[in-house]
Amino acid sequence: MSKVTVVGAGKYGSTTVQRIAEWDIVDEVVMTDIVEGLPQGLALDMNQSRPLLGYRTKVVGTNDYADTAGSDVVVITAGLPRKPGMSRMDLLGVNAKIVKAVTQEIIRYSPDAVIIVVTNPLDQMTTLAAEVSGLPRNRVLGQAGMLDSARFAHFIADAADVDILDVQAVTLGSHGETMVPVPSLCKVGDVPLAEALDPEKIEEIVDRTRNGGAEIVAYLKTGSAYYTPSAAAALMVKAIVEDSGQEMPVCAWMEGQYGIDGVYLGVLAKLGKNGVGEVSEVELTATERSALEDAAVAVAEKVADLEQIAY
Ligand code: APR
Questions:
Q1: How many domains does the chain contain in total?
Q2: Which of 299, 289, 298 is nearest to 180 (CA)?
Q3: Cα of 149 to ligand 1 centre, how many Å?
Q4: Cα(84)–Cα(106) distance, rounded to whole angstroms?
Q5: Which residues line ligand 1 (CB under 6 A)?
Q6: Which of 197, 247, 251, 260 is most exposed, with minimal Cβ within 10 Å?
Q7: Do 34 and 82 have their domain in common?
């Protein structure tokens, strides 16, 4: 059994904690935030649900990083969402400061942790956490592909009018504009996606998936999605603490796979106790491969923005 820390007790963080606790797969989940009382109150509420739901995992709410000591996995959700009038670079600056400070504290108390970053902008924040932590790159990864793939699967199931559990969908690349849907790896039952839906419909679904986060923000007005994002992050934690070797689309460090090197990119990877065990190099069509290469270039450019700001 293991210890997991989730930094940030907002919507994304607290729902991730709730899912991990209810699965009863670790001894303790520590939830921390800068807001005093928030993690403590949420933890108390969650712990009281244990006799009803029948699980033992204890949630510890704290503002003190000393309580996170010896964590096997740390999920970083701390950060601000983009506010009206704030440029992308402004958000980058604000969240870079937060992620840097959080990572320094985490590594001080859990020098051997695996860190999963979910704070946006995802690629930059994952790269930053890797650099600040000094951990081997396989121990720092980001969550984006699990979420986008789930959204893609949901839209495919709706359009094809089939059981959601019969759909296999994969997206690689990155979050947003450079998301790379991989139709050749998508299936509806045993049928390839291209045979289940016409090309226009697939294109429409791909577009909707790319803008999946914005669609939800537009409904909510304040705040962003957290049910599916937290499910994605919690499943990554599960694969790591159980050392399952399960293959998932995650944001992982590239070392020559698909001819791409030295950048964090959404790819299929096997997760285990050391984080990313192996990046799988799956067969892609020429179009998919070139889209993945373009995504790598776009991420590298975005990461270069980090060098222009003080954090
Ligand atoms: N240390 C710890 N917690 C912090 C810090 C910090 N330095 N700075 C901010 N926080 C906390 C806030 O107090 C808040 O409780 O992070 C939490 C963020 O919660 P929400 O505003 O509810 O945002 P959430 O929906 O959880 O999203 C968090 O995930 O999907 C991304 O873009 C999203 O970057 C955002 C992150």
A1: 2
A2: 289
A3: 23
A4: 31
A5: 7-13, 33-35, 77-79, 81, 98, 101-102, 118-120, 223-224, 226, 229
A6: 247
A7: yes
C-alpha 165 – ligand 1 centre gap (Å): 31
Closest C-alpha among 1, 22, 52, 26 to residue 230: 22
In one letter, which amino acid is 185?
L
pTM: 0.97
Relative orientation angle of helices 145-160 and 199-210, to the nearest 10 degrees: 140
Question: Is 278 found in the same domain as 160?
Answer: yes
**Positions marked active-site:** 175
pLDDT in tens, 71-98: 999 999 999 877 766 676 778 899 999 9
In a domain, 311, yes or no: no
CA trace torsion 33, 34, 40, 46 (10° rounding): -30
